């Protein structure tokens, strides 16, 4: 950026070319305090001289206040950023990416009023790297389409209330991300325009009423003793991802158009198994279902009958703990409720264990009476215990007459007896089985 500014003063023609650029990035290029001050001034001057040209996209990435004695410069920097934003708004700013870092005890950053009232602003991302933010007004961003708030500490209750009021007033907002924003207890989204909402945060209460919402992604974790609640009314929802804890109370309206549902509740102890069963039923009309095996095992231990999921055609099961006879029995019981399954994927997040589960063989799987066997077309498995999963593979290869392909992932090194089983399968079913070495990230 500094070279760009120097070029703009070489001639009138070059200056016109430089100021015709509509994408500008202000990024710190030095850690020297005095040089940083010069950068502040040069960038401010650059915006002042912009003239009547449009500035469509402004990206600011800066670190300030390396040490406690730099607080004066931190305050000055906050003032400079406010000045940059003021001039950017005057030049009809459309997109803003603001990423500021610094010591946590530095002054609170306040969004300028001119930014909130900017009628041309449509895309905004604010990332303060866990620093404090003051939200000065209850309304603003009247034409904003996309908002991403990340790594922010809301400075006080007034700012929290202002932020919530602003979110409630955004009539043009289509996409919203809230990620690691501290200082908010309750979020209420009642929008007639929102289509995508991603939330990776700790709330006590979350209420969503959005008739056009199509994509909802919640990574919602809180203390198990917290009396949390979740309410979702989204009749046009097509994709729902839910990670984290199960709240004490929740209410889902029927998701008639749901196509993808992912429920990954990774905690082993569930306080209300009936509540958990209700959550699975709420997403039961989807065609593509992703589930944590812990959820399935909890239902099995409570002696519940399998949930009938006749619409599910593609099922992915995620395993976060070593398998045992109970967890495999739970999987078998759950599969009895998926009568129209065409694709099954079992993915593991644990290391290979050289301990086969006793009692799980071909006869065990044949006794499950799985109704989807006549139409199963695709299977992907990962070897966790070795022969245990290979018995399931043999069962599918023998009885699933429409099976077109099976992919088995395994570690690069296997015990001798497991390798012998793998080689035998390769020889017998080379036209349908593919073995791949699992890549650990």
Main attributes?
alpha/beta; 12 helices; 441 residues; four-stranded parallel beta sheet; 17-stranded parallel beta sheet
Biggest β-sheet strands, sense, barrel: 17 strands, parallel
- Percentage of residues in strands: 25-35%
Q: What is the share of helical residues?
A: 25-40%
Unreliable segments of 5+ consecutive residues: 4-9, 13-18
Helix count? 12
- CA-atom Rg in angstroms: 28 Å
> What's the mean pLDDT score?
83
Structural class of the helices, strands and pairings?
Answer: alpha/beta
How many β-strand stretches? 21
Description:
- The protein is α/β, with parallel strands linked by helices and 441 residues long.
- Helices cover 29% and strands 29% of the residues.
- The strands form 2 sheets. The chain has a 17-stranded parallel β-sheet that branches. Strands 8-10-12-14 form a 4-stranded parallel β-sheet.
- Helix 1 packs across helix 2 and helix 3 packs parallel to helix 4.
- The radius of gyration is 28 Å and the shape is elongated.
- About 3% of the residues have low confidence.
């Amino acid at each position: 950026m500094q070279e760009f500014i120097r070029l703009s003063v070489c001639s009138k023609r070059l200056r016109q070319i430089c100021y015709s650029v509509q994408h500008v990035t202000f990024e710190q290029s030095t850690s020297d305090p005095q040089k940083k001050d010069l950068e502040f001034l040069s960038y401010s001057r650059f915006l002042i001289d912009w003239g009547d040209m449009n500035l469509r996209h402004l990206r600011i990435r800066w670190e300030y206040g390396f040490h406690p004695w730099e607080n004066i410069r931190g305050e000055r920097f906050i003032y400079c950023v406010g000045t940059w934003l003021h001039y950017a708004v005057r030049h009809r700013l459309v997109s803003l990416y603001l990423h500021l870092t610094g010591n946590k005890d530095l002054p609170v950053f306040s969004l300028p009023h001119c930014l909130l009232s900017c009628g041309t602003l449509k895309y905004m991302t604010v990332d303060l790297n866990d620093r404090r933010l003051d939200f000065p007004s209850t309304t603003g961003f009247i034409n904003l389409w996309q908002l991403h708030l990340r790594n922010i500490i809301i400075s006080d209750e007034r700012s929290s209330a202002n932020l919530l009021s602003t979110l409630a007033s955004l009539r043009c907002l289509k996409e919203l991300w809230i990620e690691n924003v501290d200082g908010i207890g309750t979020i209420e989204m009642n929008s007639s325009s929102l289509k995508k909402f991603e939330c990776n945060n700790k709330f006590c209460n979350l209420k969503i009423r959005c008739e056009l919402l199509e994509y909802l992604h919640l990574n919602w974790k809180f203390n198990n003793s917290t009396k949390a609640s979740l309410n979702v009314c989204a009749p046009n929802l097509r994709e729902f991802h839910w990670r984290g804890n199960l709240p004490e109370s929740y209410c889902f309206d029927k998701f008639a158009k749901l196509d993808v549902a992912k429920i990954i509740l990774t905690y082993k102890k569930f306080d209300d198994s009936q509540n958990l069963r209700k959550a699975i039923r709420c997403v039961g009309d989807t065609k593509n279902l992703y589930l944590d095996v812990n959820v399935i095992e909890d239902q099995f231990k409570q002696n519940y009958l399998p949930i009938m999921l006749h619409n599910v055609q593609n099922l992915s099961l995620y395993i976060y703990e070593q398998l045992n006879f109970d967890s495999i029995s739970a999987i078998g019981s759950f599969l009895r409720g998926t009568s129209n399954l065409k694709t099954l994927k079992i993915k593991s997040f644990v290391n290979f264990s050289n301990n086969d589960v006793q009692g799980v063989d071909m006869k065990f799987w044949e006794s499950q009476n799985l109704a989807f066997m006549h139409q199963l077309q695709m299977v992907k498995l990962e070897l966790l215990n070795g022969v245990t999963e290979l018995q399931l593979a043999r069962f599918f290869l023998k009885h699933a007459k429409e099976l077109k392909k099976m992919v088995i992932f395994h570690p690069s090194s296997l015990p001798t007896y497991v390798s012998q089983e793998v080689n035998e399968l390769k020889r017998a079913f080379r036209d349908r089985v593919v073995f791949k070495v699992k890549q650990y990230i």
